[in-house]
Write a structure and sequence with these properties.
This protein is 66% helix and 14% strand. It is α+β, with helices and mostly antiparallel strands and 101 residues long. The protein has a two-stranded antiparallel ribbon. A hairpin with a 2-residue loop joins β1 and β2. The longest helix is centred in the C-terminal third of the chain and has 23 residues. The radius of gyration is 26 Å and the shape is elongated. The termini are far apart.
Length: 101
Amino acid sequence: MALVNLRIGDTTYDLACRDGGEARLEQAAALIDERWDVARRAAGAGGANRAMLLAALMVADALIDARNAPPPETPEGVALDRLSERLESIAAALEQTLPSA
């Protein structure tokens, strides 16, 4: 087990994680810390627990946006789209030149 020291806002947390998971845990904490100031202001007198909830909800909101975003275009996808358009064009041209039955 590894021990990771995380800082979110003005608070430091010592958390255990499996060996090799330190960087991932630090990245996760950084996502919350990036939103900490906004969450703290929004929580007002609600305290650190409410601010932590709001920061976590902001991260979850970003995750939902990422899940709902269209997948990035890949070179293969672009090539397949072009090939599909070309095949449809050829099929349409053949339909126009063939005698009707």
